[in-house]
Structures are given as C-alpha cells and as structure tokens.
Amino acid sequence: MNYYTLLSLVLTLVQLCPCTPSKQKQSTKNTNQSFTAVRRVKRGWVWEPLFATEEQTPTQPLYVGQLKSDLDKQDGNLQYILTGEGAGSIFVIDEYSGKIHVIQKLDREKKSFYTLRAQAINRNTHLPVEPESEFIIKVRDINDHEPQFLDGPYVATIPEMSPEGTSVTQVTATDGDDPSYGNSARLLYSLIQGQPYFSVEPKTGVIRMSSQMDRETKDQYLVIIQAKDMVGQAGAFSATATVTINLSDINDNAPKFQQRLYYMSISEEAPVGTTIGRLMAEDSDIGENAAMNYFIEGDSTDVFDIITDNETQEGIILLKKRVDYESKRRYNVRAKVVNRYIDERFLEEGPFEDTTIVKINVQDVDEPPVFTLENYVMEIAEGAVSGSLVGVVTARDPDNDDSPVRYSIVHGMYLKRLFSINEHNGTIITTKPLDREIAAWHNITVTATETRNPEKISEANVYIQVLDVNDHAPEFPKYYETFVCENAFSGQLIQNISAVDQDDSAEGHHFFFSLAQEATNNSHFTVKDNQDNTAGIFTAKSGFSRQEQLSFYLPILILDNGTPPLTSTNTLTITVCDCDIEVNIFFCRYGAFMYSIGLSTEALVAVLACVLILLVFILAIVAIRQQQQKSLFSEKMEEFRENIVRYDDEGGGEEDTEAFDISALRTRTVMRTHRPRKNMTTEIHSLCRQSLQVGPDSAVFRQFILEKLEEANTDPSAPPYDSLQMYAFEGTGSLAGSLSSLGSNMSDVDQNYEYLMDWGPQFKQLASMYVSHRSVRD
C-alpha cells in the first residue's frame, strides 16, 4: 500500500495591471488588497483553498481549487478562462464554476511550480469583468525517491589503538525529494554491521571508534551504514553503503627473541669478518615500526660484532678478532635488540627491546706454528767473519700436541748465500762477510714447519741491519780539473776541494786536509783546511812557465774522524795556462791540448784552411756529375716517348686493341738495328726442363739467368716481344712441367682455339687472331 502526502497547490495571486483605466484606478485604491481563500472583496477575485494528491497516473481529473469573481451572480453570464503553463494540458478549468482540475501526474523533481493567468469575461459582451491576474501553483512534494550513496563503497584508514570517539570517516546520502517541505528528504543514519567497534552519528553520518582495536588482532573491518528518509518513520525509503576500515600499524609492540639461548661455533682458524651465525627477533608490527637494531653488550665486543640485515631484520654475528682454542674455548655473548623507531606514546608500556645469550664454542684445528714475533730486527757488524751469529727466531706449535718445528730461509738463493739458519733451533748465522756499502739492510723470510704435518707452515720477516765499520778512507768526490795562470801571484786561490766517505758516521763526517809529507818542503802550492769538510788550494809563489813545467802533481792527505781514523792520499793535477790572472776553462783546455801535440795556433789555422778548400772541391765535383746524369736521362726519355704507351685498363675485350697498334706484336720476324737476338727457344726449353732437376743455386741456372740479363741490357732498341716470368721450383722429381711461356711456340701447335669463338663478342678479336694464325700455319 502506497502512502502519499496530500499536497496543496498553493496559489499565490499576483494582481496584474487592469485592462481599463477604471480598473487601474480601483486597483490603486486597493493596493493593500490580497486574495485568499477566505476573504472576499468588492469587484475582485475570490480564492478558495486548492489541494491535490500526487499519484502515479490520475484515473480521473483531480480537483485542485476554484476561482470565483465576486461579480459572479451564479446566472451563467461569466466565463472563466485559464491560460499559461500547463493550461489545458495539465490544468483545466470549468468555465462556469471556475473549478480547477489536474489531469496529469505532477512530478516536483521535474517541475516544482507553474505560472498561470486567470480571466473572467462576460459571455454576452465578451468583455472582461475582472482584470487578468497571474498566479503560481507550487507543487508540494511527496516521498517518491529513495536515498542514494553516490560516493560508495567507502574505504577509510585509521591508526590502531585510536581512542574512543575518534572520527574515522563520514558517509553522505542524497534524496531527490524536496528538503524544504515535510520529512521526505530528512535522512537518518544507522549502523547495521560494525558493532561494537564503531558507531555512526544519526544526522551527520560520521563514523567514530567505539573502542580501541589492535591491528595485530584484526587489521580490517567491514561496516554497513543505512540511510532512511522520513526520519526513519514507517513507510520510509532506505539505502545502505559499505565502509571498509583498515587499521594502520603503530609501534606498540617490542621485538622479542625467538629463543632465550643460542648455541654457535667458530673455528679458531677462521679469518676476521667470518659470519658466525644469525639471530632473529620477532616484532608483530610491520614496516618501519618493525625495524630493529642489534647490539652486543659486555666484554665480548672486542672479539665479536653484530650487524643488522635490513632486508630480513636479522642480526648477523661476525668475528671481529681471531680466536684461539688454546687460550679460550667458549664465549658467552649477550645480544640485545632495540626498535629503531619508538612511539613515545607507548613508552610507559615498557622498553622496546629484548636480550638473549649466545654461547659460542671455539673449534680446535691443527694450527701452523706461531712465531714469538711477527717481525724480527737484528744487527751485525760489516766484515764479520763467516759463521758469525746474527740472531735467533723462535716458533712453537700452539696445539696441545706441541709438534716439533723445522726452520728454513726462503726468497732467493742470493740471501741463502749470505745467511743460513739452524733448522732445529732457528739460529741465523752469516755464510760470508757482509759489506754495508753494498747493502745496509737485508730482508729475509723465515718459515716454520710442523714436522708431523708439513702442510702447516707459518712465516716471519727478519730485517738484518749491517752496522758500519770504518773500513773506507775518504777520497775526492770527483776529478778536479785545475789550472793556474802563468802570471798568478803568490797566495792566489786556484781550487776548492772536498771529500766523500762511503762509511756511515753516527756523529757525521769530518775531514781534515793537508799536504802529504813528501810535498811539504818543495811544493809550489799550499793547502788550507776550511774546517767544514772543504779545503782551498793556494799558490805558494808568483809566476809559472809552461816551458819550464806544464803540470804539477800535488799529493793531498785526507783524514776522517772514524774509529780508527783512516787517511788517504789523493793527487791533484794542476796545469799551467797561458793566461794573465783569471782562468778561462775553455781557453786553458784548448791551450793544453795544442801544447801537448806540439802545434802552434798558426799551424792549426793553416791545417783547417786546407781542409776547407778540399771540401769545397769535392762538393763541386759532385754537383757537376749530378747535372750530367740529369741531362742524359732527359735525352733517353725523349727517345722512348713515342714508343711507350701506358694505360690502366682492366681488360675490356676488343676495346683493348684500340689503345695502341698491336700489329707489331703479331709480327713473327722483327728487324733489329743493333744485332739480332739469338734463337734461344730450344735452349730455353731445355734449360727450363733441366731447372726441374736443379735448384736456384745451381751453376747452370745462374748461367742461364745471367745470359738473358746481359742480352736484354745490351739491346735497348728491342721492344718487349717476350716476357721472362719467374716461378718457384717445385723440387726435384716434380711431375709438373714448366709453367714458362717462353717455349709455348713449340707446344701449342696441336691446340685447337676454336672454342674461343664461343666466349662472346668481347673475345671475338682474340679468337680471330688465334684461329687465323693456326690456319696460316696449317
């Protein structure tokens, strides 16, 4: 059964301008006059209440209301006329009584009001008795539309453990009915599914939390909301919408180790960085709320380390320092896990961390021997006799069985020639005296090998320093080229000297310079020690003569400060130079050289002039010869220019014959002006056959080649009728014949060249040459 609300068609009368002046005047006098259903005025309209019921399809006209003029005497003289929107099609009027009926269904959602005009005329005169008036009929709504959730279904997310009353989301439904009239569009929201976790505000549709919820228990809820119009009264329409509510994670759970105690093991020979094992702590949270860091506490931090695998959130225990079974066989490691990101709202619930114990056992292995030191530094004086003690290295087997150790020296035979080691006790001795000046340090490698397991070997570096002994006397650092001018005065400095010593002095070198004893009394020069490891050479007299003595040899004694001190005598050669006072090194060298060979300057200039003249004469002869060769070459080129034709065609068949006249090549007999060639066909054929039996070094072969070469060189006027081709020998006894074309005139007599006619037009000329030539010979 459908229930409809009775809708009144509210007719609002709007007085229009009167049709006549008298009416306008009367209207002006009654400006405050209104037309209602209960009020009557003089010469005016009378309106009654108008009501209509909105139905699906009216089966008969529905009465709406009545229009009536106060001039209507009920005698039928007045006629009521209705015009405007819907007049005649939707609304009809009884022209005698003024009653208005609706004949079609009214739908407020399509059109909410209609504007009509009413008029009353005299039937006899057809003149209006009332001015035309306009009124509006508003359609009152009935509840004929259901609520709709246009944005559904809904999805919302809210953090877990949110307090009661927290707003989750809001749902909104719409109703097509008129919200300004009645309760048709007044909606009421209710919760069909979702108690007791959620609630909804009836008027606004806001969904709120009714209790705290844990995501780890359930992370998604499905809520169904219903919207009813008519404020939920009986006969109201309703609609539902689903709301999926997801709980987002917060860090409200601490990580927990799966075990209170873990057991792991590591070999004592494992290198640093070896992975020992993995720890796994569980955290009910997800994402970054489950991120954690692992730590090691206590005294084990120097031996072990732990890092976090960010992908698996596992703690990886690593070896930080080598372990030794013989020193310590078991470690108790305390590991801790802590959340990386902590929510301060839940700090009161306890620390977000956990601890566990990891027992790590060290596994015993057969280890190589261990030296007492990784690097040994030893000293020995240079020059020590063979067999002198350098030092002792010691290694032992760290295992419980304490296997004996055997020592040896590796890395080069050179070091083995200098040192040896006792394989039982590790004593290192020299095998020959050492020289510090050759090598101040020696680096050797000593190995220790278990006698019971030779595969277990360890090494140690031994650095041997050769201590210096003062066994080298000081000497000049270089050869001094010293000159003294003939006009030098007494006490003039002519040379500064220094000294070097190959030995090493802990206090620093200090040298003392003096003249040797044998030159002290009769020397023309003196030595002055500068006390800074240098000395000056001074003249002891004035004036020197090259004719009397060209060079002086000055013995200088150099003493070092070593223990014991060593001395050496070094000879300084002083050459007399033809100069005034200042020495010019280049001039003095030149003068000394000329004086030594016995030539004067004038003689040397004469020799150089002769050499220059001879050189000019040779160049002139060479230039003349080159000019003559150029002239001869020009004449020869002019002579052969008309006979030599050069072309680069690839072979175009008959077109090649047009490049030059080849008739000369077809002539069998050629006249030669110089001398005719000897007919060597038979000889060549014989020699070619013989060449199969001889090599290129054969005398017969060489003779043949020389004869042909001589003949070609002595006959420059002969055109190139034949060509001499060189082929490699195939060896003695080859079944292949000669490949030379020199003897082809004897072997092609039986050949038939008629097949050349089938090669096409490009070989036509060639075919005609060979076929005609064969015919002539036949």
TrEMBL record:
Main location: membrane
GO molecular function: beta-catenin binding; cadherin binding; calcium ion binding
Localisation: Cell membrane
Cellular component terms (Gene Ontology): adherens junction; catenin complex
Domain of life from the UniProt record: Eukaryota
Family matches, as Gene3D superfamilies: Cadherins, TCF3-CBD (Catenin binding domain)
Transmembrane segments: 603-624
An annotated GO BP: homophilic cell adhesion via plasma membrane adhesion molecules
Segment forming the signal sequence: 1-22
Record domain Cadherin: where: 69-149, 150-257, 258-371, 372-476, 476-586
Name of protein: Cadherin-19
Organism, scientific name: Apteryx mantelli
UniProt gene name: CDH19
